[in-house]
Amino acid sequence: MLAEIIAVGSEMLTPFRQDTNSLYLTAQLNDLGVQVAFKTIVGDSLEHLTGAARMALSRADLVLFSGGLGPTEDDLTREAAAAALGIGMRRDNPTFVSLQRRFAERRIPMPPNNAKQADILEGAILLDNKNGSAPGQFLHTLVDAQPRTIILLPGPPKELKPMFADQVKPRLAATLPPRFLARRELRMALIPESTVDDRTAPIYKQYTDVDTTILAHNGEIQLHFECAKPTLAEAKARVDALAEAIEHEMTDDIFSSHSESLDEVVLLMLGMRHLTLAAAESCTGGMLAQRLTAIPGSSRYFLGGAVVYADALKTTFANVSQDLVRTEGPVSEAVARALAEGIRTRTGSSIGVGITGIAGPGPGTGPDEGKPIGLVYIGIADVDGTQVKELHLTGDRERIRWWATQHALELLRRQML
Amino acid sequence: MLAEIIAVGSEMLTPFRQDTNSLYLTAQLNDLGVQVAFKTIVGDSLEHLTGAARMALSRADLVLFSGGLGPTEDDLTREAAAAALGIGMRRDNPTFVSLQRRFAERRIPMPPNNAKQADILEGAILLDNKNGSAPGQFLHTLVDAQPRTIILLPGPPKELKPMFADQVKPRLAATLPPRFLARRELRMALIPESTVDDRTAPIYKQYTDVDTTILAHNGEIQLHFECAKPTLAEAKARVDALAEAIEHEMTDDIFSSHSESLDEVVLLMLGMRHLTLAAAESCTGGMLAQRLTAIPGSSRYFLGGAVVYADALKTTFANVSQDLVRTEGPVSEAVARALAEGIRTRTGSSIGVGITGIAGPGPGTGPDEGKPIGLVYIGIADVDGTQVKELHLTGDRERIRWWATQHALELLRRQML
Q1: Looking at B153, B175, B197, which one is the last position of a domain?
Q2: CB contact under 8 A, B52 and A43
Q3: What is the tens place of the pLDDT at every residue in A337-371?
Q4: How far apart are the C-alpha atoms of A60 and A49, rounded to whole Å?
Q5: Same domain, A213 and A147
Q6: What are the tens digits of pLDDT across the range B339-348?
Q7: B285 and A296 in contact by Cβ < 8 A?
Q8: In 3D, which of B264, B308, B288, B293 has the Cα closest to residue B402?
Q9: B296/A304 Cβ within 8 A
Q10: What kind and span of H or E run contains B388?
């Protein structure tokens, strides 16, 4: 069964806005075993929209519209769907009355245009909108003797998502063969995608009934496994078996086997080991602290730390001697070590992290003269001593800063293994 | 002139990936006065792709394909375009030779499939690809007696963008009436979009020849003005006149009249006034520091600060008395004031900022018992004293943290006006 998603709205044909509902809808449809074959984005023109609807009905079994159900003159999805199907609309009285009630409650007269939100395609079922005024519509019909399902959904994600989940998905599922989907996800950090693929492809290619997707982004590799079977137990058994085989191959490189983020894993490990953490950040300027504190509950294990951007603060907050900064340069193995040790002492944390580097756009100056953009040192101090890692990162300022925090988290994780 | 953009690739029909080239292409086409009327996303199927190409040629004057030009069996854009146009292809010998040379240089035999990257639509011009192997193509032709322009571009943004800018845009411009576009942008923070619209609509509606777009996101409102005229001077005069009229209405609410970000403006103002800044952050956990240090050159005015997530660190790094924390609670007017003053003293900065609040997901506990999620205090201390602002923010943890930093930056800016 093939689906087409038509996102309606001229704002999505500007350089500023993008359709995102289709990502949600695609995930939901895939759950049901339905593949999305086309996505069309079209503006608020009756002619364009009707043409797009006709095309979709000719090439897809299931056509979902998002947007264009509001009360304004620009909201034309209902009209276009009716024109493409060659059918009429009727005004639904209960919907009309409830629209009037909404306005009465706010003591505003209802503008006449609003009434069209009660117009319904002949033969369609109305889908209740709990978070907005425009109801959705669901219609099974024949187009040129082919069975077709047409679904009209409101554009705002907070209206579309619950409507799809509660009212559309069960209806579609009832018409499709029963199918149970199991998913698993493994995550790794800082390993080249090609290395992961070289080592895992011989394994996942044996599981022809499991769909494997490798995604690489921002220093993280995700392996997504998906399997559909007539029972959930069968589907689960297959993705679990594949995940286990890949865990056996990649061992400690895998930081997460149930979709936790690297930040969450580091906090979980700190918690399990009754450890606390503090950070002294120079080039990353608080990004590591910000990533960790984004996780609810992080305050139990992450105490905080210092953003020691100015050299004087390296002394004020992390006991780094100004002599050391002058002789070795702020971006040096020695200063990273001193930052990690100093922040650990000052905060009384079990582990201290120190990060110093050159994020660019300019190369090192003063005592760091001659040191290149992308040179980063990460120090990790604990009760057993201090280790420092030297990195040579590439890319722009934002990328270098992000990857530096990614490396710091991965070093912390490996330290705690 | 209407355009359609066809993004080719099955990965863009999954829940994981999205077409982003079309945002760039839309901005570029709008520059030329060309409107994008449709966007289609289609997978690597010859049948689907050919159908989509036929549809596009029937409804748009200009059809741009991105992706599907590589050497694999799944790369079918050339074949589909030829089929939809009903024309043949010829193998371009110089391109074929240069493909062979690429492989020879790497001492790998060229897989036979790669040769198809040298196939060119009858009558098309080849577009050189400086960052990859697949050349683009540009064709003016007639379809059902209508003039049509067909452009094939590679999918990777770093290949597509320079190819469009250097080779496609000038070719399209030559066929279109000369047109000069001027743009301006005004930015405001933390004002409701509806307030901005109520106050500015009576002004921008008088400028019927200037296109005004209001975008609101993450506590920032942007007003974009765009005007096309036969000369650049005329276009510039119109957007400048409108921008000036709106600046006159909104005065100090506008933080940026030339696209600078709020973070940049705060740093610029610090620089102009020879001031330095430091921050003590509790609930925002380093986010304010991270935002400021993301700007190159920020180290001259932003010294750094402390992430005082744990209560003990509020004393260690910002001199806040533990008595005060116990009696008032860490989330209190008094602690925000003490954090701002303490970090200023400890770092020797001209201005100190202190942020404390309840970001959620749980409400206040211990001495903060009974205080709601979203309660945030921001203290700003300088030579003239300290002011504290109490905020009641809504939304999830991430939103509350972001808005707290947004408020801190806007308070700093207004303080320095």
Answers
A1: B175
A2: no
A3: 999 999 999 999 999 999 999 999 999 999 999 99
A4: 16
A5: no
A6: 999 999 999 9
A7: no
A8: B288
A9: no
A10: strand B385-392
